[in-house]
């Protein structure tokens, strides 16, 4: 079971209860049907479709699978960038008008990403995992899966909501910090392999 598959499995079973708990603590009521629909639409359906497509491609051979990945790679990046552009377009004014709120949202996200990536990297080293496994592990461990957060925030609360603003701040922090994590784990390969 890959790390991404394990994360998807955890999100399928844990996302709705965790969101329900956190929203309940904030006295925000979202029907369970809405939370479960979000899980089905944004996690279960894409995972099932991706697995079906993967199996269909692999039946045609590894070359067909690799060729398809090469062709869709630029499209997935373009879709991600388009999502970010739209989010910033809708939330740009709020970001500029509320710098203190942005800072209050940014600090815990920054700490969480750095702590989780360092923890994952260090634990991989401690258990003797290879560097080429520890690097993606530290990135996956630090990821907030903002794509899911963005989809859920917009579908539940709308483009102009505080929840959507928080996901934008998450992207603003997570993306550059993840690039920093990539740089650190690549530059620390010598230290990592001395263990």
UniProtKB/TrEMBL annotation:
GO CC term, one of those recorded: plasma membrane
Entry's transmembrane regions: 9-29, 35-53, 74-94, 100-121, 133-157, 163-185
Single annotated GO MF: arsenite transmembrane transporter activity
A Pfam entry, by short name: SBF
Family in the record: Belongs to the arsenical resistance-3 (ACR3) (TC 2.A.59) family.
Primary subcellular site in the record, as a coarse category: membrane
Keyword terms: Cell membrane, Membrane, Transmembrane, Transmembrane helix, Transport
Entry-linked PANTHER family: ARSENICAL-RESISTANCE PROTEIN 3, ARSENITE EFFLUX TRANSPORTER
Record membrane topology: Multi-pass membrane protein
Protein name: Arsenical-resistance protein
Localization in the cell: Cell membrane
Species, as recorded: Salmonella enterica (Salmonella choleraesuis)
